[in-house]
Write a structure and sequence with these properties.
The chain is of the alpha/beta class and about 600 residues long. Helix content is about 25%, strand content about 20%. It is built from 16 helices and 29 strands. Helix 11 (about 410-420) crosses helix 16 (about 575-585). The chain binds oxalic acid (OXD) and manganese (II) ion (MN).
Amino acid sequence: MHRALEAWVHEIAAHTKPDRVVWCDGSDAENERLIGEMLKDGTLQRLNAEKFPNSYYHRSHASDVARTEHLTFICTEKKDDAGPTNNWMSPADASARVWPLFAGAMKGRTMYVVPYLMGPASSPFAKVGVEITDSAYVVISMRIMTRMGAVALNHLGENGEFVKGLHSLGDLNPDRRFICHFPERNEIWSVGSGYGGNALLGKKCFALRIAGAQARREGWLAEHMLILGLEDPAGETTYVAAAFPSACGKTNLAMLVPPASFWGYKIWTVGDDIAWLRFGPDGRLWAINPEAGFFGVAPGTGPKTNPNAMETIRKNSIFTNTALTKDMCPWWEGMESGTPEGLTDWRGNPYTPGSADKAAHPNSRFTAPASQCPSISPKFEDPQGVPISAFIFGARRGSLVPLVYEAFDWNHGVYVGSSVASETTAAATGAVGVLRRDPFAMLPFCGYNMGDYFGHWMNIGAPGNVPGTSTPKRLPKIFHVNWFRQSAEGKFLWPGFGENLRVLNWILSRCRGKGEAVETPIGYVPGPGGIDTTGLSIAPGAMEELLRVDAKGFAAEWPQLNEFYAKFGDRLPAEIRRQHEAQRKRLGA
Ligand code: OXD
Ligand code: MN
């Protein structure tokens, strides 16, 4: 037994006063027992056993359907260490305001102790977390999303380090909802929400906010990035990691099916949301996906947009806040053409086709084991991960930002990542479609001062050898993409989905020292013919428009970006300032 773990579990039980404490082992029998209990009490409904075997439906409280960024706090001793982009609460205030919400919160409930491992079982990069929760839905979801139970306790041993995560549904009242992170003591408190990003503490809370702070201390990276391998017809696979804001298509890109004209190419999925990266013995950055499952946005996922996801979710999956068909199958907008009769909407009401409301909540989700994905990479369980050749930053921008461009070098690429702005989506509570700065797609997930985070990225790429070795660094190239450019009439200019391979292929050739490129004030864009358009149906002139760099438009945004950087005061790295000034000059602003 691990004494510190046992002591913590006793402390939490004494405070939350559950009727019983259950240590979860992650076994099939335990999973079946929990599912049986939830079917009885109505937390879950069994889905059509023929079409979706061993799959379940869950409807969350209508006020608890997305991450609540305004209720998410970084609790560092000093406010400046949380930085201007995070909500801050001092640990003392958290003890006074949030800890009492846990007092007696588990009376009449079961307290589950959920040990889990982030990363492949034998990976030296894997880390252990333990989540204490009073939600059985959280337990069965953690079993899909992480390596849960005995495997984590084995990894922990008698003295290993672990991240403490305390979660209670509380009374689900948003007025008493807090998601608090203590990066200085590797601890998370979450109360008042059962929604994935707030309640499955291994994901955003640990693997990004807490691990991000650990990564800075220990010299590695914890990023909001998918990882994919692109295999060419010669059988060579090149891996890239790509950061996009929530609900901007990371899962679709990670599972992309190449267009017919790209015969012999194949995409291998390593991860769809989170990457942990470290220097390997060859000086390259190697990435693992710390997760074991996909918690994907359902609406828009269909046989055309993401056939691999549709295959992945056919069994052993959980669906949350989608609609339901008459024959108990999950349904959402974009799953198929047309709307079937007899749907029940995500709130549990009969749905009238053609109604202005959506049948599925726009942030409804599937939770499915990664191992079921037809494109899952043979390297998914590789303890060392995969070597990354390119970082890609993406954004949802209806205008201005070209389809793809390449940064001049590492420092410029870090500047590009730091300047990302994107239109907001339904993945977080609040207005949708509003442009906001979302550096590295990490705005909601950076567990410390984002100025220091930019500095950490600069340090990772600082000239010289891998720290502590005589191996020169071999850094990935850095790119920016935007699949979401629209015409004046509001039509998407780029078809996206499988066709994005054409862009990835240009990126791949640049990584191999090939590929036509033209220098512009913001970076290199593909030269004429740089992107293979064989078999692509696209409006005349669209390709030119997609690759056009509107220097005046970028110059007009420069002051707004300047204001954003000013927020960081002296925590903004001098090199970001220097890059920003150089960009101004190049833009002629
Ligand atoms: C997610 C998110 O769930 O980014 O991955 O919100
Ligand atoms: Mn995400």
